[in-house]
Design goal:
heterodimer; A: 328 residues; alpha/beta; 7-stranded mixed sheet; B: 349 residues; two-stranded antiparallel sheet; globular; Transketo_C/PFOR_II (chain A); thiamine pyrophosphate (chain A); THDP-binding (chain A); 2-oxoisovalerate dehydrogenase subunit beta (chain A)
């Protein structure tokens, strides 16, 4: 039966359940234990499972992420929390050179049940070093899976699936979604972790988004409906791999696609999605795929400017109007 | 050390030497490509350390790891086939010289980014400690790797949580071409362990018995639960950093100094058959010859026996080359399977 929970609570529940079921699961990261996690995701787990399974680490991102790689090689299921994705830059050797490469370099003879959870995105005036979105960097690495949950249900499902997977999975959590409320029913069987979902059916255009932008796309679609435009909203849920079929099926119905991303526009996730859909549905499109993305600029501290660097609901509505007019 | 053990050491050192020299030949023929870092001169470290381990211990190694793998028991044919990029290689042709893996023998890989072995080793050590198992982890690294951040990060965590890891520095005194006094403010690597209260020792890495005993002692302490230890083995590579490196940066005066400190080995050269070459002896004290002499002195071996052992090793290496030559090439499908080896039956849409 569904109950209303916050995303951090859904993540917490997922961790608690997998840790209770499997002694090979352990958590490590900065302030995940005694402190309870900087966004409360690991709250209560230290008291319940002890310090060996919920390990507070020193501030050594590269080595504690690499520790997760080493533990995964012996079949364990480490869940590494990197406090923010900005700090993951210090761990890119462990993520890209090790987690994504070792099973392959070993000829396919080693497991890599490593999960890396990391909050990111533009939050509230955290300035340029704490507001990055780095999905494009990770998407370009074969061997990694990347999930981007936007609801409590998906956060619960996808984190559990990540921990139980033998592949390295990056769970990109959005800092502004942790206190986002929604239904969670643990009894519903999950779809595959990379399956996209149509959040709202529509006929005039397709909005493709993920993470916090999927939430904004839903809000924009409500506004558009009131203005006579029916937007179909797809929440990608996964950036690697991408569920092309669900996207292409939608575009075949609507013939127009607007991709919304918070990450910088240049060489970003949206570029890949636009190119992939152009290749797959060129003849079905009545207008070029449109991208709405973050500006190619470090995030300013000033709150007004900060908001101007990333898509807002108004921007999505305006872009949808432009796209629907094009080619008609 | 009893006869069987001494001869096993000598066999593995000879195998390591002959295998690597054969690799150089195959590289010149074009059967081996890419970066090829050879081990001659450093055999006492691999043999001394790995013979002191249990088969249930994990080994994490660097890109100069062929001999570590051989001593660990990875079949020479599978190592050579990997260097040839073949499907029967221990990494199925996906890893190559710098990435040998053998999960069954707990040989957890060669890592080609300097300083990566520490976090992998503490990860294995963490798992062992969390599950309260009796195993230990050997973490090899070179002197060039001690200035990476991961050295300090990982030693700190290993000490903090008393992880069962033996950090083994193969100090061949050069970070590629930069001599240790030019890259390290504290060139005595073992002293750095004090910063993390990790017991550490420096041993003569050209003497296999000393390396073996020091490793044995360190592993006893580790298994008793005292936490990590560090062993610095002073050694010297006879060749350049890799096949692409003629090693001109090492001054002749240094090579001469090694010659002068090693009259016994020079004398032994007169008795020596194939191993090592005069150039190798000229480059420094040779652990292999020391061990051979030990075996002679102890009556474990006579000259005829040594010749037989050499012939046996020669045959093993030739068989390995033959195995590599005959192994099929991997296909692109094999590569995809290696990439998605952990995906299971999940169907991607």
């Amino acid at each position: 039966m569904a109950e209303e929970v916050l995303i951090w609570q859904a993540l917490n529940r997922a961790l608690d359940e997998v840790m209770a079921a499997d002694e090979d699961v352990f958590i490590l990261g900065e302030d995940v234990g005694l402190y309870g996690g900087s966004y409360r995701v690991t709250e209560g787990l230290y008291a319940k499972y002890g310090e060996w399974r919920v390990r507070d680490t020193p501030i050594s991102e590269d080595s504690f992420t690499g520790l997760g790689v080493g533990a995964a090689l012996m079949g364990l299921r480490p869940v590494v929390e990197i406090m923010t994705i900005n700090f993951a830059l210090l761990a890119l050797d462990a993520i890209i050179n090790m987690a994504a490469k070792v099973p392959f370099m070993a000829g396919g003879r080693l497991p890599m049940g490593l999960t890396i959870r990391t909050p990111g995105g533009v939050a509230k005036q955290l300035a340029a070093q704490h507001s990055q979105r780095l999905e494009h960097t990770l998407m370009n690495v074969p061997g990694l899976r990347i999930v981007v949950p936007a609801t409590p249900q998906d956060a619960y499902w996808q984190l559990k699936q990540a921990v139980l997977s033998d592949e390295p999975v990056i769970v990109l959590e959005h800092e502004l979604l942790y206190f986002h409320k929604g239904p969670l029913d643990p009894a519903i069987p999950p779809p595959p972790p990379h399956r996209a979902v149509v959040r709202r059916p529509g006929r005039d255009l397709t909005l493709i988004a993920y993470s916090k932008m999927a939430v904004l796309a839903g809000q924009a679609a409500e506004r558009l409906a009131a203005q006579g435009i029916e937007a179909e909203v797809i929440d990608l849920r996964s950036l690697s791999p991408i569920d092309w079929q669900t996207c292409a099926d939608s575009v075949a119905r609507t013939h127009r696609v607007l991709i919304v991303e918070e990450d910088c526009r240049f060489a970003g996730a949206g570029a890949e999605i636009a190119a992939g859909l152009t290749e797959r549905c060129f003849t079905r499109l009545e207008a070029a795929p449109m991208r709405l993305a973050g500006l190619d600029m470090p995030t300013p501290y000033n709150g007004t400017l900060e908001a101007q660097t990333i898509p807002q609901v108004d921007d999505i509505v305006a872009a949808a109007h432009r796209l629907v007019k094009e080619g008609s | 050390m009893d006869r069987d053990q001494a001869l096993a050491f000598l066999h593995d050192m000879l195998l390591g030497r002959r295998f690597e020299e054969r690799c150089a030949e195959e590289y010149m023929k074009g059967n081996i490509a890419g970066f090829l870092h050879l081990y001659p001169g450093e055999e006492a470290v691999a043999v001394g350390v790995i013979h002191a381990c249990e088969t249930s211990d994990y080994i994490v190694s660097t890109y100069r790891e062929h001999v570590h793998a051989l001593v660990r028991g990875v079949p020479a044919g599978e190592v050579m086939a990997e260097l040839f990029g073949k499907r029967c290689g221990c990494s199925r042709g996906m890893g190559g010289s710098m990435h040998l893996f053998d999960p069954q023998r707990r040989f957890m890989g060669g890592y080609a980014i300097v300083g990566e072995t520490y976090p992998v080793a503490i990860g294995l050590g963490y798992g062992i400690a969390m599950k309260d198992l009796p195993e230990a982890v050997i973490c090899f690294f070179g002197d060039g790797a001690v200035n990476q951040g991961t050295f300090h990060e990982s030693l700190n965590m290993a000490a903090l949580w008393k992880l069962p890891v033996l950090f083994v520095c193969e100090n061949n005194q050069y970070a590629i071409g930069t001599e240790i006094h030019r890259h390290s403010a504290v060139p005595e690597v073992y002293k750095r362990a004090a910063a993390y209260r990790i017991p550490a020792e420096r041993v003569d890495g050209m003497d296999v018995l000393k390396v073996y005993r020091a490793t044995e002692h360190a592993l006893q302490q580790i298994r008793a639960g005292s936490g990590p230890q560090l062993l610095e083995c002073l050694t010297y590579r006879f060749r350049g950093h890799s096949m692409a490196d003629p090693g001109h940066y090492r001054p002749p005066v240094e090579v001469k100094a090694h010659q002068q400190t090693d009259p016994l080995e020079l004398a032994l050269r007169e008795l020596s058959l194939v191993y090592p070459t005069p150039e190798q002896i000229a480059a420094g004290p040779d652990a292999l010859l020391k061990l051979r002499q030990y075996c002679f002195d102890q009556g474990h071996l006579h000259e005829e026996g040594f010749k037989e052992l050499e012939q046996q090793v020669q045959d093993e290496v030739e068989a390995a080359v033959q195995f590599a030559l005959e192994s099929p090439q991997p296909t692109l499908d094999d590569a995809w399977q290696a990439l998605y080896c952990n995906r299971g039956d999940e169907i991607l849409i």
